[in-house]
Specification:
This protein has 360 residues and is an alpha+beta fold. It has 3 domains: 84 residues, Roll (Ubiquitin-like (UB roll)); 79 residues, no CATH class; 108 residues, Pleckstrin-homology domain (PH domain)/Phosphotyrosine-binding domain (PTB) (PH-domain like). The chain is built from 11 helices and 14 strands.
């Protein structure tokens, strides 16, 4: 006879709410303890009619109380996740997003995939994480208005813009153009896009966004070695570092680490570090920061042998003459954020290598 205390009614079973990019949501009841994130991803892919190839661009995640987004590995068991992070009612809220962006939208197979890319890039623009030139920004917002508020008139443009950009305009736009001028410029471009089919507008939006160096990137707040605020931006081309001004809340590009120059990534507790190959004497080092830490082999060995240190698969040389390395350290807000940054970087680097092989 089973334990009556273990009998749970259907209404009290733990569940997950999965929010989709097209504003739908799926409720998943955790009927058994072996249901994984990968199982839920397959369910979502079927609902959205994604091909197997395109479904690999997407992943599930959740946002913490510091507004950092955490990706979930497919092997994570949903029952354990609900128990550790859910609210008292046993409900876990997850989001379905594009994790891996491609060079051009024409690489995806399904029209439904392109539509989801459009929604996710819209989210990135709304979060002020898609950095573009002013004229491109006006055009992007105009396309959004044509898609979501096609009956917009000149006297309602302000309301329409607030619907598609609920967090207002990025500070770097308002630094050069005031609110009324933004509205005028957006409406001028909207007059062209209002005549185009919605699908054409979506593709135009994606193609314009692809020009941005921050296209498809996730940003995480951190501190550099001098305890200055910075942003780690992780995507399919590499890791970009941005500075955040203290007074105007502006972010500006500072350093770029393409995947081809990164040897290793590791973290311990709240410390995340990027290991770069030491430039050869014939190579230009103008892109190397002034505050680069040059550490010796003993220090590196100690870091990698520490029991709490997690290391990626890198290109470490096996000969006796170990090269010196340049190490860029950063401090994240919490150990969980640090682990997410590390795991995101590893996954993006793997995706970069896979795409590189496919293109060959």
């Amino acid at each position: 006879m089973g334990d009556p205390n273990r009998t749970v009614s259907a209404s009290r079973r733990p569940k997950a709410i999965v929010r989709l990019l097209d504003f739908q949501q799926i409720e998943v009841i955790v009927l058994h303890s072996r249901l994984s994130v990968e199982d839920v991803l397959r369910l979502v892919s079927e609902k959205l009619e994604l091909s197997f190839s395109d479904s690999q661009y997407f992943c599930l995640g959740f946002t913490d109380n510091l507004n950092h987004f955490h990706w979930l590995d497919g092997s994570v068991i949903l029952y354990d996740l609900v128990a550790s992070t859910s609210n008292p009612k046993g409900t876990l809220t997850l989001s379905h997003h594009v994790r891996f962006f491609v060079d051009t939208i024409y690489e995806v197979q399904c029209a439904s995939t392109a539509k989801l890319f459009f929604f996710d890039i819209h989210n990135q623009l709304t979060r002020h994480e898609l950095l573009v030139a002013s004229e491109d920004y006006f055009e992007l917002v105009a396309i959004l208005v044509s898609v979501f508020v096609p009956d917009c008139q000149e006297h309602t443009i302000a309301e329409a813009i607030s619907r598609v950009m609920p967090l207002s305009h990025p500070p770097y736009i308002l630094l050069k153009t005031d609110q009324s001028d933004v509205e005028k410029k957006v409406f001028e471009k909207f007059r062209y896009y209002r005549r185009l089919p919605v699908g054409t507008g979506m593709i135009s939006f994606i193609k314009l966004a692809e020009k941005s160096e921050s296209y498809g990137y996730r940003m995480y707040e951190a501190l550099n070695e001098n305890n200055d605020k910075c942003i780690l931006s992780i995507g399919y081309k590499g890791i970009y570092i941005y500075r955040r001004s203290r007074h105007q809340n502006l972010i500006t590009p500072y350093l770029a680490y393409p995947w081809r120059v990164i040897d290793n990534l590791y973290y311990r507790d709240k410390k995340f570090s990027i290991e770069i190959r030491e430039p050869k004497k014939t190579e230009s080092s103008e892109n190397v920061a002034d505050d680069v830490i040059l550490i010796n082999d003993r220090q590196l060995s100690e870091a990698f042998s520490h029991p709490t240190t997690q290391v990626s698969c890198g290109r470490r040389r096996s000969n006796n003459q170990q090269p010196r390395v340049l190490l860029f350290p950063f401090t994240c807000a919490t150990p969980l954020v640090c682990r997410t940054v590390w795991m995101s970087a590893i996954a993006q680097h793997r995706f970069f290598l896979e795409r590189k092989e496919l293109k060959k």
